[in-house]
Amino acid sequence: MKQFFTPNLVRQLPVAVISGGLIAMIGFKSQTVHIPFLINVVLSLGLGWLQPRKGWLLALLQTLTILVTYSLFSNSSLLVPAQPEVARFAALLAVFPTLTGAFMGALLGRTIKDKQ
Fold this sequence. Notes:
Layout: H1 7-29, H2 34-50, H3 55-74, H4 84-92, H5 95-115
Helix pairs in contact: 1-2, 1-3, 1-4, 2-3, 2-5, 3-5
């Protein structure tokens, strides 16, 4: 039986955490929801590309990080949102572009790697 948490996957877990925190911070500084969602899809696509078979785990970790980071920032004065409703909307709906981007990245990664 293969090991689930491979060394490659364990090395990529911090990437998901850092990208989730970055997406939440961008949501706090953005005037509209378009930029945080674009950054979210691009970074999630990268996570799916890194782990074509287990990208869903990285996507869930990224989503959890976005929600925790939003909660920490909104309950403190570390980072004041430019538009509070934009930050809340981008954080709460982050699960959809994250999972979609990771799925598309995994599909693209598997397709290209299988062709080689």
